[in-house]
Amino acid sequence: MSFLLSCAWLQGDISGILQTSFLLILILLILKGAQLYLCRQRLVRDFQSFPGPPAHWLYGHFWEFPVEEELHKMNSLAEKFPCAFPRWFSGFMTFLQVYDPEYIKVILSKRDPKAHAIYRFLTPWIGKGLLVLNGSEWHQHRRLLTPAFHSDILKPYVALMADSVRVMLDKWEKLSDQGSSLEIFEHVSLMTLDSLMKCAFSHQSNCQMDRNSNSYIQAVHDLTYLLTYRIENGFLHSDIIYWLSPVGHRTRRAIQRAHQYTDQVIQRRKWQLQQGELETISKKRHLDFLDVLLCAKTESGDSLSDEELRAEVDTFMFEGHDTTASGISWVLYALATHPEHQQKCREEIRRVLGNGASITWDHLGQLPYTTMCIKEALRLYPPVPSIGRDLKETIIFPDGRILTAGNSVSLNIYTLHHNSRVWPDPEVFDPLRFSPENVMLQHSHAYLPFSAGSRNCIGQKFAMNEIKVVLALTLLLFELKPDTMKPPLPISELVLRSKNGIHLWMKRLH
Questions:
Q1: Where do the annotations place heme binding (predicted)?
Q2: What distance in Å separates the CA atoms of residue 191 and residue 193, rounded to the nearest whole number?
Q3: What is the C-alpha to C-alpha distance for residues 465 and 468, in angstroms, rounded to an integer?
Q4: φ, ψ for residue 424 (rounded to 5)?
Q5: Annotated binding residues for heme, as ranges?
Q6: What is the H or E stretch that residue 480 is in?
Q7: Which position among 223, 225, 344, 439 has the lowest Cβ density within 10 Å, counted as fewest Cβ atoms?
Q8: 3-state class of 183 per DSSP?
Q9: Exposure on the CB side of residue 138, measured as CA atoms within 13 A
Q10: Which residue numbers belong to the known binding site?
Q11: What's the pLDDT at 367?
Q12: pLDDT digits (tens, 9 = 90+) for 136-160
């Protein structure tokens, strides 16, 4: 009898626990629903002066911007909604898409932090380095890293870049005889990685010939795709949902592969330091990027921690090779599709370099027409299509519209560069837009391939030098033509890529 009473008591106790748990869950769901409702009402109110395309109350514009059509869609909406419009990533998260130079100037004149809702997704991969830091920490790291991009540091890099480019061109010469076009993005990525390892880390990686290096390139490619997918899917912004999802598992594996490569770079140099080479490094005539990191001291006299060192190396490994590879690949494509400008560049390069046996820092400043073509290509195909900011202060835009503090904006560089209100006939390749007389007439924030203001790209001189070296040596050896059967499909995946690659015909010049 007592046993039956105990069972009945236990059953009643479990039933009570279940009822209480259900009630607590219900209350939490109601509170969360109320929070989301209030959040949406605030966003609708804050963005009411910025008309845009209709958005679903739950999933926003998620279905309106498929990856392969996103850039074209943004350009068409810019024609309909001048200056800016809100893009809803879900019913409870929106960014003001900005593509007007006056609007952008107002935003970049301030020192608002990077958009936390977006850039935090990069932290597991590249850590808290210069790209994602804000405030005093960013200022400190920027000050410590600036010496790494001084002209005295960059000058000897030109010869190292040229060595890497010639390895790539030798491969292209052999492959061009096979009677098919070449997909150049992967080749260029390996070349920029090889060049970066020589310039920034004083390491002869041989990665263009070593297939194992492709694992890092593939990891970076996977991460840019997976993180873009997460950014555009508001439901995956939850860390719990994302890391438990199949996409999150793929991201974790790709991060591990990328870190294995960068860990080797750091450990190799640490081993050198253990052999007593720090004094030797500090006395080198030309310091590389890692030298500067290792020798850098904060205002309090402290060195960078292992975590900070790792973050800056991962950041520069990504930005210094993948972003630059995007720029180079699209510049080559732009000139391949405009043979008259390609030939003018070739003639200028021949006058300055002769047969190209030697290329130096001084040569790079003697290529004005080639530089104009590069700038026009970067206008049409900016390597970083957009950047984000969180507003610390309420902004009043030139037309009187107001966006309150606490909201986020996306500075859409690609759409800015294709904005017909800013650039007449924006789809036309016209290098003379960047002639000295025309540059004087441009708006200061109409052309932003490297952003602007205090947070402009610290490595823009490094990137421009490498683009010039690649273009000069390539055009001396090859005539470039597009594969019309495989036109590229530009997509935004942190950097500007082509969904189906960039395919060119290479004709050896005699």
A1: 457
A2: 5
A3: 5
A4: -60, 135
A5: 457
A6: strand 478-482
A7: 439
A8: strand
A9: 14
A10: 457
A11: 98
A12: 899 989 998 898 898 988 999 999 9
